[in-house]
């Protein structure tokens, strides 16, 4: 490895999905200020919507997200009811009925919701907003818990894209990260969604996992490419056990060093390109005819909190505990703890906790 790259590769840094990055957001951000930002939006401009579901049915040791393990349906159903209230509160704070250009369900695992709760929430969204004719409607899913019923409902609700956390197919690696999902399980979920009319499929892969080798990662790329996802994100594992307690289940002694991580990232990127994917930005790949690859080629690529995107909306409305939004005026982040978030929404408040007004240099 280049010595300069080696030196900087060892530095821990915040996620680069925002500028300034999330650690710069100010606490105690006033709800009134956010309401003013929303009221000043041009009604004719499109907006994006992000809905966050922090629940997962199974725990993954590598996960660094703000998530809650849900072994029962009750807490997830209760969360959905409050999220419906936040949908109405947010829409009511806008200057009028606006149009959605992109909608993304993230988590956690949004498909931890029941099919009926997902439908009720989507019906609420459609009651308050219009959708652009070419709007992308996307949802993240876990192939270990995605049921055929939910896949069919996702298709009926008009979703156009689904994302899967594949991470790595090697069984030893999967055991080490507590995410066991053989290729045929992922293949079945992909087929169920495509059969339901969801044409766009995304895979997430991770390098830097315990027991992972260049060979196992390349084999994962080949198995993934055989399922022909339209887009692949290649992320580096961030080991932060002081923040994500579940990561303490991973033995640090079997994690690769910086040079090994770099070798894996490079090998996986080369393998994806060999399989016909186009490299996009820092960590994304897409088939040449995918809209993301076309946007990159035409210089129209953008980035938001979900990664690289074709979405040109200047406003991203984040709903749900811990979600982050953006307007032309600045960033906002919702309350992280689900109980406090729920109480704020139930009391009729937009549940913002942090924010950052843009200055000209940010813009």
Structural descriptors:
globular, 4-stranded antiparallel sheet, 363 residues, pyruvate-formate lyase- activating enzyme, 34% helix, alpha/beta, 9-stranded mixed sheet
C-alpha geometry: globular
Radius of gyration, in Å, reads: 20 Å
Structural class by sheet pairing and helices: alpha/beta
Report the average pLDDT across residues.
94
Total number of distinct structural domains: 1
- CATH secondary-structure class: Alpha Beta
Assigned CATH superfamily = tm_1862 like domain
- Topology, number of strands: 17
Helix content: 25-40%
N-to-C order of helices and strands: HEHEEEHEHEHEHHEHEHEEHEEEEEHE
Query: CATH topology, what is it called?
Result: pyruvate-formate lyase- activating enzyme
> What is the CATH architecture annotation?
Alpha-Beta Horseshoe
**Main sheet makeup:** 9 strands, mixed
Share of β-strand residues: 15-25%
Widest sheet: strand ordering: 10-11-9-8-7-6-5-2-14
Q: Measure the end-to-end span.
A: 35 Å
| Count of helix runs | 11
Q: What are the low-pLDDT stretches, counting only 5+ consecutive residues below 50?
A: none
Map the helices and strands.
Blueprint: H1 3-9, E1 26-27, H2 31-39, E2 47-53, E3 55-56, E4 68-69, H3 73-92, E5 99-107, H4 115-128, E6 130-141, H5 148-156, E7 161-167, H6 171-177, H7 183-195, E8 200-207, H8 214-226, E9 231-236, H9 258-274, E10 278-280, E11 284-286, H10 291-297, E12 302-304, E13 307-309, E14 315-319, E15 324-327, E16 330-334, H11 338-346, E17 352-357
Parallel strand pairs: 2-5, 2-14, 3-4, 5-6, 6-7, 7-8, 8-9
Antiparallel strand pairs: 1-17, 9-11, 10-11, 12-13, 15-16, 16-17
Helix pairs in contact: 3-4, 3-11, 5-7, 8-9
